[in-house]
Amino acid sequence: MANRFITALAAIVFVLGMSMGSPRADTTYTAEEIVQAATGFFGDTTEGLAAAVEKAFADQGRPNAFITGEEISGAFFIGLRYGRGTLNRKTAAPRKVFWKGPSIGWDIGGNASKVFTLVYKLSDDELLFQRFPGVDGSFYFVAGLGMNYQQRGDVVLAPIRTGVGLRAGANVGFLHYDREEGWLPF
Question: In this structure, which topology does domain 25-178 adopt according to CATH?
Answer without folding.
Answer: Lipocalin (2.40.128)
